[in-house]
Write a structure and sequence with these properties.
Elements (H helix, E strand, L loop, with lengths): L1 H14 L4 E6 L4 H14 L5 E6 L4 E4 L2 H4 L2 E2 L21 H11 L18 H8 L3 H13 L3 E4 L2 E4 L2 H11 L6 E6 L6 H10 L12 E4 H7 L11 E4 L4 H6 L2 E3 L8 E4 L4 H6 L2 E3 L2 E3 L2 H9 L5 H18 L4
Parallel strand pairs: 1-2, 9-11
Antiparallel strand pairs: 2-3, 3-4, 5-6, 7-10, 7-11, 8-9, 12-13
Helix pairs in contact: 4-5, 5-6, 9-12, 12-13
Length: 323
């Protein structure tokens, strides 16, 4: 803005016109906009008009009543960084996976998976507990029964082949999820500790009280007591991976060749990911099933971490007979 003002004043003097200084960027957040207004109040002559524009559609001008009336609202933000490709198959759709987590929840402790733990009488009961529509629950139950993975007997729904279910779940959800390499705007000595502190103070609202950001993959495995791989920067999972979200976490996109402080992902299956997330202290982390799935598809030592989670948590859960 300072440089734009110097240029605008020089050009305006030559043309005997009023200077108008405008800055542009890919994304100008509300916080940055307020900083620009503050800069103008403190340093710009009242004769200098000013404003800004960004690639998201924001336009704001100041300097006269006519200019100040110019406002173009920002277009709804699209995810600029993470581009997940999710499958739409009924049984392993986003809500389908959440329903499967509800069905297997009694096999896992609350510290590993957030989901209701009651005997499910029928499809309607499943839909009510999972907070989905009855048709959605019916489609999942029908698909799972047809696949030989679910049965309705003794008056309730139950998974009859947990090992088969988990193996198919892993195969069918190998979605490609974009991953942003991020750096702290202000350098942190301990990236994991700094991210946990940011998450503890994250206050983006959710109508049903579910998290909209959490730790994932290897960092989540550590919190679940199932850590195996060390030395990998923490993964931050957010519902919307945008420049604004990065800024609110104190992060920026890393330049090519820079070391990574935090990996940022937008989950391919956000409902299943965030509905099942568990809270450890002040920090939300992905549930044990999601952590297993995400690490299983990770290119760097993910298979080792996933195998450890399977051996320590999933295999024992599969061997437990439901009463």
């Amino acid at each position: 803005m300072a440089r734009a003002t110097l240029i605008a004043v020089k050009v305006a003097q030559a043309q005997k016109a009023r200077p108008l200084a405008i800055v542009g960027a890919e994304f100008i957040s509300r916080r940055m906009a307020e900083s620009l207004r503050g800069f103008a109040r403190d340093y710009l002559d009242e004769n200098v008009a000013f404003g800004w524009i960004d690639a998201r559609g924001t336009l704001e001008l100041h300097g006269s009543s006519k200019l100040s009336a110019v406002r173009v609202k920002r277009k709804p933000e699209k995810s600029a960084f993470a581009k997940p490709v999710a499958r739409t198959q009924t049984m392993f759709s986003d809500l389908g996976q959440w329903l499967l987590k509800v069905l297997v929840a009694p096999r896992f402790p609350l510290s590993h998976l957030s989901a209701p733990r009651v005997e499910l009488d029928n499809v309607r009961h499943l839909a009510e507990l999972a907070r989905v529509s009855v048709p959605t629950a019916h489609r999942l139950v029908t698909a799972a029964k047809d696949a030989g993975l679910l049965a309705y007997g003794r008056g309730h729904l139950s998974v009859v082949d947990p090992p088969g279910l988990f193996e198919r779940w892993r195969r069918e959800t190998a979605a490609t999820t974009g991953e942003l390499h991020a750096k702290w705007i202000l350098k942190k000595s301990n990236s994991s500790a700094a991210l946990k502190k940011k998450l503890a103070n994250w206050t983006e609202p959710d109508p049903e009280g579910r998290p909209t950001a959490c730790l994932g993959l290897f960092a989540a495995a550590d919190h679940l007591g199932l850590g195996f791989v060390e030395g990998v920067p923490p993964h931050l999972l957010v519902r919307r991976a945008s420049a604004r979200t990065l800024e609110e976490f104190g992060l920026r996109e890393a330049d090519p060749g820079e070391t990574v402080d935090v990996f940022v992902r937008q989950p391919a299956f956000p409902e299943s990911t965030f509905r099942g997330a568990v809270r450890h202290g002040d920090v939300w982390v992905t549930d044990v099933i999601q952590t297993w799935l995400d690490t299983a598809h990770h290119r760097a030592r993910g298979a080792e971490q996933a195998e450890y989670i399977h051996r320590r948590a999933l295999a024992p859960a599969c061997s437990e007979d439901e009463e």
